[in-house]
Amino acid sequence: MAVQNWIDILRLSKKTALINDGKRKIHYLFTDGKEMAEEYDLKTDELIVRKWRHKSTLGAQGQWQVEIGEPLPVPVTSSDAEVIKENCSNPVFMRKDTKANFQWRIRNLPYPKDVFSVSVEPSERCIIIKTSNKKYFKKFSVPDLDRSQLPLDSSALSFTHANNTLIVSYKKPKEILTLEQELLRELKKLKGTGEGDIDCKTQ
Q: For the chain, which has fewer Cβ within 10 Å, the N-terminal or C-terminal residue?
């Protein structure tokens, strides 16, 4: 079963834990050289950040790619400053899960809810957001379902709109909920060091 395969890959990875700033930070090093970094809220156990780093074909360390959490800030040079200023009202897409749902938030979308259409495209294994006024279009996958090779279910999808933000939710299947609970139990067994005790690669 694919879900079990992913659990096994996580178990086989080399894990480093760091407790800092009210968060449990975990760094995973996989056998293929990929790295994953996660941050959990110590009080709620909610996953706040997940990011990945891959080595290039020449073995150079790549940039972190955020899967869950605020997008990483792009370094701004002085010549870019004006451009960035002008584009600050552009839609900002980010993922911020809850315990029960995968959830994506797109800020700076000042249109009424009935303009939006959110659907599942099973053949492409993705979710599609469209607007009837042709002002916004976004197609994105759900990496958690891909890793576990679980199907996308349109009945699990819902969305709401408030304060110029579109919130798209996808109810986590029971297989994912079980996997997350198992993983959290494993992570809590890791001896987490305090800040300054270790040079953690998630920093």
A: N
